[in-house]
Amino acid sequence: MDTQRLPRRDVALTEVGFGAAQGGDLYRPTTHEEFARAVETAWDGGVRYFDTAPHYGLGLSERRLGALLRDRPRGELVLSTKVGRLLVPSPSTAHERDLDHGGMFDVPADVRRVWDFTADGVRRSLEESLGRLGLDRVDVVYLHDPDEAGLLDVAIAEAIPALAALRDEGVIGAIGAGMNASAPLARVVREGDVDVVMCAGRYTLLDPSAADDLLPLAAERGVGVVVAGVYNSGLLAHDRPPADATYDYAQAPRELLMRAHRIADVCEAHGVTLPAAALAFVRGHPAVVSTVVGLRTAEQVTQALDRAATAVPAALWRDLRSAGLLRADVPAPA
C-alpha cells in the first residue's frame, strides 16, 4: 500500500489507516477473536497505520490493539493514540455499562472519563496509554476533542508544548489534534507547533467544509491531515443509503439523504459504488496524508481495501460538478 510521509516528521502513514474504536466495543460487543482477525487481515493487506484512544471502550481498544500489534515489526508499524481524557476508577458505576451511562461503548463503566489538557494531564494520559498498549513509544499523539470540552485554550497553551517536549525527547514521533470540526483544528495549526491533525466528518463528499479553512492552511504550514469519518458515520457507507441512515451519529436529514442518492446515481453511471467514491474523493486534496476507516471485522477490512483500490474515472467528478453535487473549487483526485 502507498504511504505518505508527514511533511515535517519522519513518520509515514499508509493511505488507509485502521480506526480501532470498534475494538472498544463501540455500540455493541466485539469478540477478541473477531477483532484479531480484522487486524491480521489489515496487516496482510498492507495497512501499517493503526489509530486508537483511551476513550474507545474505556481503554479496551488500546489493550486489544497493543496485544495484537506487539509482536509485529516495530519499524513497519505506525501507531497513534490520543490524550485529554483520563480514565479514573469509578466504583459507584462499575455495575453499569458505558452505554447506559451516557457513553458509546458496550463495556463496564468501572472507570470514568475526566477531561484534562494540562501539561501534567497529557503526560499522565500518555504514560497510562503506553501501559495499556504494552509499548515504550507511540508514533503519533493527538489531543482528543479539546473543543468539545471547551478546553481548546488550555490545550494550545499547555498540552501542545508538553507533547512537543516529549516529541523532542523521542517518546513521540509526531503530535497534533483530532476533532470533529475544522475551525478549531485550523486554530491549532495556526497557533500550535503540530505536525498532523485528524479531521472527522468535515471533508467528505457531503461536507467538504474543511477545504474552506483547515486544508489550505495545513498545506501552507506543512501539516499533514488525516481524514476520518469519510462516510459521515453511515450515510455514505452503502451503495444506496437506507432510509434510516445516520449522519454524524444521528438520523440523516431528508435533504442530505436525497443528496446522497443523487451522488449514488452518478456513481452507478460510472460503475463505481458510493463508498468507493467517498473514499477516493478525500485523497484528491494535497494536504491529506491518510484516511482512517473504522473497522471491526475481517470482512469490513477486505471491503475497505477493495474500495480503496477502486479506480474512479475523472469523468465521475466532472459529472458531479455539472450536477451541482461537488463544489467547483474543491480538488478532485487525478
TrEMBL record:
Pfam families: Aldo_ket_red. This is Pyridoxal 4-dehydrogenase. Keywords: Oxidoreductase. It is an enzyme of class 1 (oxidoreductase). It comes from Beutenbergia cavernae (strain ATCC BAA-8 / DSM 12333 / CCUG 43141 / JCM 11478 / NBRC 16432 / NCIMB 13614 / HKI 0122). Residues 16-313 form the NADP-dependent oxidoreductase domain. Its EC number is 1.1.1.107. GO terms for molecular function: pyridoxal 4-dehydrogenase activity. SUPFAM superfamilies: NAD(P)-linked oxidoreductase (SSF51430). It comes from the Bacteria. GO terms for cellular component: cytosol. Coiled coil: none annotated.
